[in-house]
Amino acid sequence: MNEPAEAVIVQRRRSPAEITQLVAEYQASGLSRGEFCRQKGLSLATLARYRKRQGQGDGLSGSRWLTVEVAGDKVEPASSASSRLALVLGSGRRIEIGPGFDAGTLRQLLSVLERI
């Protein structure tokens, strides 16, 4: 007979300015994509699409290859003066990560570098 209709929530499309603002909020938040999307009620795919439109893709899709050079084959013991990982960017900037690094700080650093 007459059953009540289910309510369907239809999201309106975001304007380009709203998308720009949302991507900027994500970049400044320091949150993971998943956490940011949960807080904003977005799907991961939507955020990825918005970032791609802004030229800030996640770096995981597409064919972005980086040159990697092994500096040496000798493993040195870890000490406070040495690092286990060093990343030298094309600009000459160097990021060194030693034993016991703080993963949260590294995420924030990478977030900032992605905006440059």
Features:
7% strand, 2 domains, single chain, 116 residues, mainly alpha, two-stranded antiparallel ribbon, 4 helices
Which runs of at least 5 residues are low in confidence (pLDDT < 50)?
A: none
Straight-line distance between termini: 61 Å
Total DSSP E strands: 2
Q: Strand arrangement, largest sheet? A: 1-2
By helix and strand content, what is the structural category?
mainly alpha
The percentage of residues in β strands lies in: 5-15%
What would you note in describing this structure?
This protein has 116 residues and is mainly α. The chain folds into 2 domains: 1-62, no CATH class; 66-116, no CATH class. The chain is 39% helix and 7% strand. It is built from 4 helices and 2 strands. A two-stranded antiparallel ribbon has the order 1-2. A hairpin with a 5-residue loop joins β1 (85-88) and β2 (94-97). The model has no long low-confidence stretch (mean pLDDT 75).
